[in-house]
Fold this sequence. Notes:
By secondary structure, this protein is of the alpha+beta class. It has helices at 6-14, 48-57, 107-116, 132-137, 199-216, 236-242, 271-289; strands at 17-24, 36-42, 62-64, 71-73, 81-85, 92-95, 98-102, 141-142, 145-146, 151-158, 163-168, 174-175, 178-179, 186-193, 222-226, 249-250, 253-255, 262-265, 298-300. The strands form six sheets. A five-stranded antiparallel β-sheet has the order 6-7-14-10-11. A four-stranded mixed β-sheet has the order 1-2-5-3. The longest helix is centred in the C-terminal third of the chain and has 19 residues, at 271-289. The radius of gyration is 20 Å and the shape is globular. The termini are close together. Uridine-diphosphate-2(N-acetylglucosaminyl) butyric acid binds at residues 142-143, 216, 225-226, 229-230, 235-238, 241, 259-261, 296.
Amino acid sequence: MRVDDRKLIAELASLGIDLRSGTSLAELTSLGIGGTTDLLRITRHDSIPALIEFLERHRIPYKFLGGGSNLLVGDGELPWVILQLAKPDPEIVIEGTLAHVDAAADLGRTVTYCAKHDLGGMEGLIGVPGTVGGALRMNAGAYGMQIGSYVREVKLYRAAQRRIEILRGTQISFEYRHTSFAPDDMMLAVTLELPSKPYKEILQGIRICNEKRRSSQPLGQKSAGCIFKNPPGASAGRMIDELGLKGLSVGDAKVSDRHANFFVNAGQASARDMLSLIADVRGRVEKAFGVKLENEVVVWNA
Length: 302
Ligand code: EPU
């Protein structure tokens, strides 16, 4: 989808939008898969209601991108523009045990920045790629912790109300890889309330989690993390592994040899390849175990 009318481009510029025409989503996603469209980078939160009004008035479909680390985007020319927050400076402000973090901030950087200020709790999230906004939206978690536990307040654009609102943590429900945010809500900023811990102790926890992750996940390869959610009481990775599916591939889309719930782009995989691999594995698991695995990865397919 292209915004190529000069008047529209000027209107976008007046809203503080940095328009990057013909951007490849393969370059903005950790899977390295995805077609091309216009990217609208938002430099001012307060321009979002006017931006959405503009897009709707001109019937320009849009999607909101975080860090692109849990996302599988379709191939070819995409039928929507992409909105993404530009990173402000500073991204994180510490106030006692509170961390005020912009949604565009990198999650790993946030964990280490807070650690340096003797604020812990998020050690398990080290090594989870993506932005704080993305982590919040899906309640990212690992090694027994989840980000939702530390949320004091969230600033978001609520598409249904067409305005920016602030929600208290207690008004949001955070479940396993699921939250009560509406699909079209946009995370803008979050205040986390974190336990005080000496930096050295947090660092030790970070090292342990890093080591566990390095030994069990294909970190150097292009992936979207786990493809499927774990069904209650079971591990999707273990089930796929038990069926001997590590290494199974469609084109360059491949079930990781290291962790069977990670599907990697081993070269030039297309969305079509990856979707076909996902469907194949889901079908085999259902046949063998009677369990229909649900996607954890978010799919934007035209
Ligand atoms: N296992 C296998 N073979 C495999 C993979 C795993 O036998 O190929 C076994 C492991 O040996 C272990 C069990 O399955 O006994 C569970 O594996 P693991 O500890 O790797 O955890 P997981 O359930 O596969 C979850 C999250 C990960 C998170 C880890 C660590 C989901 C879908 N996955 O994986 O999150 O990093 O725990 O806490 O909840 C993600 O969300 O994208 C993600 C990678």
